[in-house]
Amino acid sequence: MTNQTDQVIKGGSFLIEDVSKERVFTPEDFSDEQLMIAKTTEDYVANEVLPQIEHLENHEFDRSVKLLKQAGELGLLGADVPEEYGGLSLDKVSSALIAEKMSRAGGFSISHGAHVGIGSLPIVLFGNESQKQKYLPDLSSGEKLAAYALTEPGSGSDALGARTTAKLNAEGTHYVLNGEKQWITNAGFADVFVVYAKIDGEHFSAFIVERTFPGVSTGAEEKKMGIKSSSTRTLILQDAQIPVENLLGEAGKGHVIAFNILNIGRYKLGVGAVGASKGAFEITVKYANQRQQFKTPISQFNLTKEKLSTMASKLYAAESSVYRTVGLFEDRMSRLTEAEVNDGKEVAKSIAEYAIECSLNKVFATETLDYIADEGVQIHGGYGFMQEYEIERVYRDSRINRIFEGTNEINRLLVPGTFVRKAMKGELPIFQKALQLQEELMMMMPEEPGDEPLAQEKYLVRNAKKIGLLAAGLAAQKFGKALEKEQEILVNIADIISNAYAMESAVLRTEKAIEKSGLEKNKQKLLYTQIFCQEAFNEIEQHAKETLVATETGDTLRMLVSALRKFTRHTPINVIAKKREASEKLISAEKYLV
Amino acid sequence: MNIYVLLKRTFDTEEKITISGGKINEDGAEFIINPYDEYAVEEAIQVRDAHGGEVTVITVGGEDAEKQLRTALAMGADKAVLVNIEDDVENGDQFTTSKIISEYLKDKNADLIIGGNVAIDGGSGQVAPRVAELLNIPYVTTITKLEIDGTNVKIVRDVEGDSEVIETTLPLLVTAQQGLNEPRYPSLPGIMKAKKKPLDELELDDLDLEEDDVAAKTKTIEIFLPAQKEAGRILNGDLSDQVKELVQLLHTEAKVV
């Protein structure tokens, strides 16, 4: 066998290959510098942003601009910007930690994220030398703020259906843009917009549009359900004059930029959702300790304990997944030559390789946040419904995450779709593995996992992947090209794969931690992993059954159901007892901890 | 100007203190720079920026304290020194620490030494004044303002909520009180630079000290948490009976009269 560390881990390969824990990045691997960066971000949010949150929620955006400048002075806007353009060229883990810690600031973190992420990155990755020199130093200092304008009233998920047009003027000096871009974050104060338009109504392209260019204006502030401390407006382009040198990337290649930026947006959103989940959890457990009913803090009731442990276990799985994915980018990018690193397209490619993981993280982490915010309100009871309580804002702020950067439905559909594409291109031997599995099925003997820590969970992960492959293989065989229309089945497959990825990420992290510092110090991690794996596996079984029944009938179905039974056979753990145990530390620490 | 900052690693102020086996539980706890020492670091950086010179942060403790030293370097200090006593000293006290620090500082020609007013864990407030005593230089505690002009120093110090103005000269040791300044966050460029700044690690040997030279002068008999605050009680009945009952309670229960 070749030495694994010599090879880069392929995107999506987790489904058909096992990876050793040494290759997986975990939060226990953060360096001191990374932790210090996280601390500075945390302190900045706690001391500078949160005291002003009421004002920000009331749309006092001059404060947002000041705060972002202050963030720029601290270096919190330059993580992904190369040093030669005034940035810090930080690693992707540091940049992810900034996003995680920033997310405690609710809607303000969306302003920050839109500026450093989708606003600035298109120029970082796809700008030419003079565009980078012109815009990046100011974007990384916060002197200028950025926004990203893709969505239109008639084109959301179908981004390429944009109607905004660009036409080169007769003199050949300017593109003239006409159209409206909707729900543009930071539109109230951004100086620079990355705007997509079709040249001659056909060639989808990206442009750098300055607020002060003639013909550029913005509409009224939107009245949103949540993330109210971020500015959202329509960007109006009426014969807007964009100098030709502001075409970003090649004419007609705007989709390359758009899709790459979406990948980045998705993983960052996943990381942000993890941070917001931690915040929601902390608020909730503190409240549960303070609130007394029947002369008992409600945290002492077993049903509250159950809720807290379920929340924390999902959060552990989400946190393990997102940082594992960031580690994949980092590993791949560390193999790039200096010239490649400076070529943004290579960097974008390194992230696009993990498009499946980006989508999985986005879906899993945002739904974890929604779950935690919802249960957070529930634990607050009637008080959680009142605006004086922070959890009320967290609940409203959470909702958008399942919608933007590609709805969770679109992201789910992308998962099997991308697997099929990778298989067709010969990048991943999915079909071969699926066939192999079907043969294996006939003679398979049930396995008995041992009773050492994580043995059962590893067994569940192995089988979860097999079930995913089985379901995907069957559906592909049965429906062929028409599978595209079987969206319910595709989403079931995506959910199985999503749970498998999250389970494996949790297991590998816990395994790595136990090896490093022993079982005693990692009991909490083990509990989360056991709880999460058991519950996720139950869901997998459910999704698989539904898929089989929708795919086959009669004897074939019966045979398949019994095959599935072989994969799902295990002695379940006592989840109720494990949750009671896991809740103790959470309640005494009054925060999510591992 | 040659500026030294005395720094201690302490529990995060957010941590809940628990005791197991007669010791404070450190498992999984977060640690920070003692908040008063953070004022000291900030003041040192400001003095250096105004008057030139160099800021060196020094701590006595274990390997783990390196993190807090790095944080001070990231804030802007120039150098750091860790006197690692992990292997040599089992139970140190304020004497131990001040002895070690003064031995380190005795030939360094420090112009200004800044410490925190107290550490939020032990809270003795002794180490810095003892260092000044051992170095035979003047010291002023709980300062809220520091102005330096040549070797003349004008200080405002907090005296239980009132303030006192003191004039003195360098070399000098001061301890920082809340209000002295607003400590900066370590910026990201600062954090990246801190990686390359010198952090020296010394042991007792390097200071020509024996374990006996620094043996604690005090002994910790017991560590316990403050008694849980009990609910208040409202006395009822006739006013004169209430007074009687109150006196009785103060005498027998609270034992204060």
From TrEMBL, chain A:
Entry EC number(s): 1.3.99.-
Residue span, Acyl-CoA dehydrogenase/oxidase C-terminal domain: 252-415
PANTHER family: ACYL-COA DEHYDROGENASE, ISOVALERYL-COA DEHYDROGENASE, MITOCHONDRIAL-RELATED
Residue span(s) of domain Acyl-CoA oxidase/dehydrogenase middle: 147-239
Cofactor list: FAD
Tagged with keyword Flavoprotein: yes
Domain named Acyl-CoA dehydrogenase-like C-terminal: residues: 463-566
Record's catalysed reaction(s): a 2,3-saturated acyl-CoA + A = a 2,3-dehydroacyl-CoA + AH2
Keywords: FAD, Flavoprotein, Oxidoreductase
UniProt-recorded name of the protein: Acyl-CoA dehydrogenase
Protein family (similarity comment): Belongs to the acyl-CoA dehydrogenase family.
UniProtKB/TrEMBL annotation, chain B:
One term of GO molecular function: electron transfer activity
One GO cellular component, as annotated: cytosol
UniProt xrefs under Gene3D superfamilies: HUPs
Record SMART domains: ETF
InterPro entries for this protein: ET-Flavoprotein_bsu_CS, ETF_a/b_N, ETF_b, ETF_beta_N, Rossmann-like_a/b/a_fold
Domain Electron transfer flavoprotein alpha/beta-subunit N-terminal: 21-211
Highest taxon of source: Bacteria
A Gene Ontology biological process term: carboxylic acid catabolic process
The protein's required cofactors: AMP
Keywords (A to Z) from UniProt: Electron transport, Transport
Secretion signal span: none
Record's subunit section: Heterodimer of an alpha and a beta subunit.
Family: Belongs to the ETF beta-subunit/FixA family.
Record's function text: The electron transfer flavoprotein serves as a specific electron acceptor for other dehydrogenases. It transfers the electrons to the main respiratory chain via ETF-ubiquinone oxidoreductase (ETF dehydrogenase).
PANTHER family xref list: ELECTRON TRANSFER FLAVOPROTEIN BETA-SUBUNIT, ELECTRON TRANSFER FLAVOPROTEIN SUBUNIT BETA
Protein name: Electron transfer flavoprotein subunit beta
Organism: Pseudoneobacillus rhizosphaerae
